[in-house]
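Final report, closing paragraph on structural work. Over the funding period we assembled a curated collection of sequence-structure pairs, and we close with a single example.
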Amino acid sequence: MVNKHNNRLSKIQGGQENSLLVVALLICFATCTIQAQESSTILLSYKIDHLIGFADETGKAVIEPQFSNTRGFRNGFAAVAKARLWAYIDVPGKLITEYNYEDARDFSEGYAAVLIDGKWGYIDRNGKLIIRPRFSSAGEFRNGMAAVVPFGKGGVSSEKVGFVDLRGKLAVEAVYELAGDFNEGVAPVALNGKWGYIDKTGQWTITPKFQSAGAFSEGLAAVRLGEEMFYIDHGGTEVLYSEATSLGRFRDGVAKAWFERGGVDSCGYIDRQGRILVERIDFFECDEFYEGFARVRVRTVDESFRKHYAWGYLDKTGKMMIPAIYDSASRFENGTATVRINGIRMHIERNGRVIQTPDLKQEIPLITESQD
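Its predicted structure, as stored:
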């Protein structure tokens, strides 16, 4: 989402939070459910006695707890840690690499970024080092390109962003202050404080002039010029204006948006014609739609005027399909989401049913109540 209040880190992609390639990548323990896509098997992480294992979609343990950390499964592999070193396992739980890495990212387009002796490089699905470690930070591959920050002379980070291709060649010179994902053949980049768009050769497709810029999605990108927010097409033409103060990318024809009316902030969703589909002042945070559901953080005020916040899920009509009762909640991926309530972490299905993984001490009932 492009947001005028975002800090420098979140502006890597003009503030669009869900497709960032961050100059200084900060990745925490991944609690979301990821499908091992190559085997069509859904694996859910769980923790017992501070060790992490994996269960199948029924909640049955398939990989016993043995890891201190994990990113979860993605594209058939999971990055897992023991004693502060990282390795990768496949769906049956077999190691495809040794515990060689100081840090490790998810696989994307066949490559995963790994940290060796303080430098980032890339391995392939066989665990072979394909792109030698020479970057101070490295993003995931998108459209065959990954944003990287090379080390300069004397082993000091250049603090400038470029792009490496799948052969390991620095295809786009590292000259940009900030950069976002390649998508639909172009990437938003910032040069001299202004955002524009480049192609895979580094040529400008839209010259830098914006205060912020998001990645293209469904043919449109959200940008800020002065105090105005609007969407542009690949030619740089304004095609959709919005009264919103912040705009997200389109997914399935819907984009999240923030509004300010009389000093009161609210968030909701718009369609490709700019029509407001959902807007509620009690929505403190709104996420993109995934698998037909969007997670939203709902704000309530009690009798003592204390504010309380909880996560739930709504559909595109604005109806709360799973009530806002959770302290934290992930996006739905492959039919499941990870939530936390009263300190208990669990996986739920789209109907709100809790999957009884081995770490749950007692069976948790289905929550069916909805809130409009």
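The CA atoms of residues 297 and 311 lie 4 Å apart. DSSP finds no helices and 34 strands in the chain. We thank the funder for supporting this effort.
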